[in-house]
């Protein structure tokens, strides 16, 4: 698959051939769904918790005599039915993570990239570098090219000037190629790759 390469302000900078093995697959929604579910589950803290009746600081003495009061036969004020009592079947601290093999995770990333390519959502830049960290300059370039909602993947560490200029622009994310993931790719309309990022992705996923 051949795609044009531009600068971030829309100037033509040649073209590049994208590997069909990485960007040309027929997208499988089931794989992409499994990967997103795995990512979102893995980042959940799982620290939600309540006190059950064994953890409540309250007397365990029987409330009243068993017979003769006309009341129900209660044994402890820590029971869930009383105000201030323990919670029945409440959440406990746990991990929400589940297993997903490395082979499936890699395949899901290929299908996410292929889905973007199929929808025409991939843009390739020559590089993502600025001479000075000016948000106004970068925002005007994005407005000129119609880039409003995008994730930008760069090869290696992102340039500091570019990161500083882009961080105040809403709906624009910047990641190194090592951090590329299915969820972030699909939550943005456009996927912007530098030429170095394309080479790194193809070397990693082929």
From TrEMBL:
Gene Ontology molecular function terms on file: rRNA binding; structural constituent of ribosome
Region described as Disordered: spans on this chain: 59-81
Pfam families per UniProt: Ribosomal_L4
Biological process according to GO: translation
InterPro entries: Ribosomal_uL4 (IPR002136), Ribosomal_uL4-like (IPR013005), Ribosomal_uL4_dom_sf (IPR023574)
Keyword set, alphabetical order: Ribonucleoprotein, Ribosomal protein, RNA-binding, rRNA-binding
Similarity remark: Belongs to the universal ribosomal protein uL4 family.
Function of the protein: Forms part of the polypeptide exit tunnel.
UniProt xrefs under PANTHER family: 50S RIBOSOMAL PROTEIN L4, LARGE RIBOSOMAL SUBUNIT PROTEIN UL4M
Subunit record text: Part of the 50S ribosomal subunit.
Listed name of the protein: Large ribosomal subunit protein uL4
Organism, scientific name: Methylocystis hirsuta
Gene: rplD
